[in-house]
Design goal:
Helix content: 55-70%
Oligomer: single chain
Strand order of the largest sheet: 1-2
Order of helices and strands: EEHHHHHHEHEEEHHH
Radius of gyration: 21 Å
Strand content: 5-15%
Number of helices: 10
Structural class: mainly alpha
Number of strands: 6
Largest sheet: 2 strands, antiparallel
Length: 300
């Protein structure tokens, strides 16, 4: 059996001063998969698949900006929270993205593209062609956290994670020996705050798998088999509910270092998750109630 006996460098490629991180590769790969699925569903619905091209050009950078803004607002250790406004830009390379903020601004930007440029396209169908597929982007993006050795949970005995592939278990091995951090990639801010005899629970992996499961259920199974009574927009609503539940349940299990806590005692991501869940449910209700109200008003 092949074993990886050392930790993986978070830097995939270095050319002079240019560093390409695995994190960026994972984010872009996830975005590409979402884009390709969106093209497929636009074509399947009888629309021009190139609509997805215009959406991704605007939504991807908007999502990255939204993720950065959300982190700067919500994390107590962000530049904004420490009086450095321009740190939003100048300290970008030091990390700090919050996915939920990226979803909010990225989705809003994509919806804006459709509403302004493709007025003949059913906006709710367009949302369902794209938004549920964000789950695959989030699933792949979480592997960027794997390379960075972040978004992990409690420390457990190394052998407790023997059910995982060796390369995952080894990457999650602790870096604290005799009270000293001996992380192999400390220069790149990648290390696990557990003893060397321990490993951290890989929450990134658990969330990644749950996101893949959500993609299969919401974007594939429900899309195919829920044909009677389903409204355009329902899949987007179910995305909000699914992802909201996943983040709400996993967030408290994170290492404290990676929990955004600028709003009080409850983690910001949990509060946002609750809003996602409520928003998704209300959206599904509105999709059914508004046509009834309009029809009633029309006949009164």
């Amino acid at each position: 059996m092949f074993y990886i006996l050392s930790k993986l460098n978070p830097i995939a490629l270095k050319l002079g001063d240019l560093e390409i991180r695995w994190y960026a590769i994972c984010i872009l790969t996830g975005a590409l998969c979402t884009y390709l699925l969106a093209r497929y569903y636009f074509k399947k619905g009888g629309y021009d698949p190139n609509i997805a091209d215009d959406i991704i050009v605007i939504a991807l950078p908007a999502g990255i900006i939204g993720a950065r803004i959300w982190w700067c607002i919500c994390d107590s250790g962000s530049p904004w929270r420490n009086g450095d406004f321009w740190g939003f830009i100048t300290e970008f390379a030091n990390g700090g993205l919050a996915i939920q903020g990226g979803v909010i601004l990225g989705a809003a930007a994509g919806i804006g593209v459709v509403l302004t440029k493709y007025k003949n396209v059913n906006i709710f169908y367009a949302m369902d062609a794209v938004i549920p597929n964000i789950l695959i982007a989030q699933a792949i993006g979480r592997w960027g956290n794997f390379f960075n050795q972040e978004v992990y949970g409690a420390c457990v005995d190394y052998e407790a994670l023997n059910f995982l592939p060796n390369f995952v278990q080894e990457q999650m091995r602790g870096d604290i020996l005799n009270g000293v951090n001996i992380g192999e990639w400390n220069i790149y801010s990648a290390s696990i705050e557990c003893l060397t005899t321990q490993a951290a629970q890989p929450l990134f992996l658990y969330e990644s798998l749950l996101n893949i499961l959500g993609l299969v259920i919401v974007s594939i199974v429900i899309r195919k088999f829920w044909t009677k009574g389903r409204k355009n927009g329902d899949l987007s609503a179910l995305y909000l509910v699914w992802y909201g539940v996943v983040r709400f349940l996993l967030e408290p299990l994170r290492n404290q270092e990676f929990i955004m806590n600028a709003w009080g005692h409850m983690p910001v991501s949990q509060i946002t998750s609750i809003l996602f869940i409520i928003g998704g449910i209300l959206f599904m209700v509105a999709l059914r109630a508004i046509p009834i109200i309009k029809n009633k008003t029309k006949h009164d």
